[in-house]
Amino acid sequence: MKILLIDDDVSLAHMLEEYLQSEGFDVLALHDGNTAIAEIASGAYGIVVLDIMMPRMNGLQLLRQIRASSQIPVLMLTAKGDDADRITGLELGADDYVPKPCTPRELTARIRAILRRTQSLATAASLESTFFVGPLRLCPGKRQAEWDGKPVQLTSTEFSLLEVLVRNAGRPVSKNALSEQGLGRSLAPYDRNIDVHISSLRRKLGLTKDGTPWLRTVYRIGYQFVKE
């Protein structure tokens, strides 16, 4: 699996690059957003690890450009405690984040969690039947979604969360279960990751005939995909 690492801190990027390579990944480290755009467009990478704080083109600006043409998984590196950038990144389509300073081991674990849920395996599980719920058609094997017959552009994390909710349509799913099954990790205290992704999904799916969201909040539990 090829990883594109983008961070203007050359020494940190080099250290992370060496560690990830020792873990079996093929890594290219770049240090500015402009250079990274062409590499991302090549389609050669399985995931982008993107630092938010960079000169000239910062990580959020680059993320916006990435999402204009690609659904490649993006893991953000954010300043510790900087919730504003973190939430903005998730709203722009990032899949997850790791606060800096982080250990190479933690970063590797997050990368593997994202890749586990985004790679389609040639197994019976990946080729299982398509789900139909309301106007939604969801094909987990191909990781494709349609709404009223039209393709819905979802990030890898949005697709994974929606799949969990669809499999449990009509039943509430706790935030912790969504985090474990959709993000590949336990829900951390004060973690708004799930809420931001659900908000994005609501915008993309629209409202039911009675004007309520298809994805409803279940007080003190989590979220539920409505079954009409």
Write the layout of secondary structure elements.
Elements: E1 2-6, H1 10-22, E2 26-30, H2 33-41, E3 47-51, H3 59-67, E4 74-79, H4 83-91, E5 96-100, H5 104-118, E6 131-133, E7 136-139, E8 144-147, E9 150-151, H6 156-167, E10 173-174, H7 175-183, H8 193-205, E11 215-218, E12 222-225
Parallel strand pairs: 1-2, 1-3, 3-4, 4-5
Antiparallel strand pairs: 6-7, 7-8, 8-9, 10-12, 11-12
Q: What's this entry about, in short?
A:
With 228 residues, the protein is an alpha/beta fold. It has helices spanning 10-22, 33-41, 59-67, 83-91, 104-118, 156-167, 175-183, 193-205, and strands at residues 2-6, 26-30, 47-51, 74-79, 96-100, 131-133, 136-139, 144-147, 150-151, 173-174, 215-218, 222-225.
Describe this structure in words.
- The chain has helices spanning 10-22, 33-41, 59-67, 83-91, 104-118, 156-167, 175-183, 193-205, and strands at 2-6, 26-30, 47-51, 74-79, 96-100, 131-133, 136-139, 144-147, 150-151, 173-174, 215-218, 222-225.
- The chain is an alpha/beta fold.
- The chain has two domains: 2-118, Rossmann fold; 125-225, Arc Repressor Mutant, subunit A.
- The strands form three sheets. A five-stranded parallel sheet has the order 2-1-3-4-5, sandwiched between helices.
- Helix 6 (156-167) crosses helix 7 (175-183) and helix 6 packs across helix 8.
